[in-house]
Design brief:
The protein is α+β, with helices and mostly antiparallel strands. It has helices at 59-64, 122-127, 129-132, 136-158, 199-207, 246-264, 279-285, 314-321, 339-351, 380-390, 405-422, 500-509, 514-520, 522-528, 542-549, 580-585; strands at residues 20-32, 36-42, 47-53, 70-79, 94-105, 162-163, 181-183, 191-193, 212-221, 232-242, 268-269, 276-278, 299-301, 325-331, 358-364, 368-371, 397-403, 430-431, 433-437, 442-444, 451-453, 480-485, 488-495, 535-538. It contains 16 helices and 24 strands.
Length: 594
Amino acid sequence: MNKYRTHNCNELRKTDVDKKIYLSGWINKKRDHGNLLFLDLRDNYGITQCIIDKDNKFFSDLEKIQLETVIKVEGKVVNRSKDTINNEIDTGEIEVAIEKYDVLGTCKELPMPIFSDQEYAEEIRLKYRFLDLRRKKIHENIILRSKVISYIRNEMIKLGFLEFQTPILTSSSPEGARDFLVPSRLNPGKFYALPQAPQQFKQLIMVSGFDRYFQIAPCFRDEDARADRSPGEFYQLDLEMSFVEQEDVFNVVEKLMVNTFKTFSNKKLLFDKFPKISYKEAMLKYGTDKPDLRNPLIINDITEIFSREDVSFEIFKKLVKSGSMVRCIVTKNTKDKPRSFFDNIDKWAKGEGASGLAYFTFEKGKDISAKGPIGKFFSQDVLLEIMRKTNSEIGDSIFMACDKQDELEKITALARDKIANDLDLIDDNVFAFCWIVDYPMFENDELTNKIRFSHNPFSMPQGDLSDKDFKNPLDILAYQYDIVCNGIELSSGAIRNHKPELMYKLFSIAGYDKKQVDEKFSGMINALSYGAPPHGGIAPGIDRIVMLLANEKNIREVTMFPMNQNAQDLMMNAPSSVNPDQLKELNLVLKTKK
């Protein structure tokens, strides 16, 4: 028999009354009623209330003991009185009358309370993460994470996938985010890179003749932190399949996501079959390729309206002549909203760096008119044309922005979310998945004005490749796709380019000559030259999946030992300095920054 416990702290029930037992755990909370001390004992599984009266020789010791001390108690299971039953915990009908106890682990004064889920400064939470992880909410999040990963692994095996591990020390990639570099002791002056993703290796697995691969893969990117992205490292469900088209990948991932989200959440799925939205359509209708489809608001382009003579809104007309565009958002039946509602949204837009959001509301008296600061600039015919283009009606309001396309997409995407939240249009009890498809193969780099890959350089371009007009590379679409849920991108994926000559051609458009491709991607190009099957895959982010299921806004809340915003581990003091002997062994010399 285990010397520390006969039961865990979530196990005892009314059927155990009168049993002699012993439990071990942390002192979660104490309540001193003078003659009686109540003590909540907590372990990984739950809480059991223990009691001791003042006649017990251990009473005064337990009265003084520090919270979070680890103790073992021995005692008898007794019924709680009817008026003290706690239905919020599984052990709420019983309590343990303490006969004696032992201290298993002492505890210093706490820098933060454990029994509360109250918010604390990031610095304290991350420095004492081992304490933070004892708190109920985050403890349950990490347990959820474990269960989700185990479930996904079992589902992938059921779907015929084999789990393989790919190297952590690999070569640097010229594409994507910054690499984390690791100096090689045995190869002076040369460096490994930690993998941003197992991209090339999983393709090589397909070339090796394995048909369906997956792993829960650690990935490393030297990126700045965001609410939905950890700095430094993260985990993804990496998968690849041979002899597949785009739809085959979609079918596998949709089945996995539907099953996972239905298993671990009571929220509804808006779609069991995920809608497919082209990148071009997404940027027009939502201003982003990460749309939140719980939000019913749609963005419309009404640029051509401002070329009409019966529009006298000169500010927008001049901007349109110089190459700007006008897009708008319609809010249904907002005629009774106070002026402050509209002005606050306009003020908010200016705070976001835009010139503001022009607005008016459609009204009908004798004629159709527009109520609002700019309503007088639009004739009845123009208003009817706007109503037709935007499917709006009398009583609806319209918010308009005018700018160059990139800036216009940014502000209208933000405004769409802002207005929907202000109008309480988003159902928080829903998951809305979608696919974003038909990404452009290339894009213009704004800084260098050169063509670069827009997504994944190893993707297969669409169309009849023998007739493909490579002279207009910005018109080439690729078999690239993202899966998005509630406005959060879970993953990017693609059908891969498995043809070496085509790969050379595409890389040449992005400025790489044959020699550079052979040097940077020697393993890939060489492997594809020996009979490669058509293949494709995707890699949904584990951290983001769990974040959605746990209903958290920040990925830190579902990550066991995250770094802070500056990519520092405050608990382990990383990154840290190394001694000169280590640097010498690696043939490195540090240059001091002036």
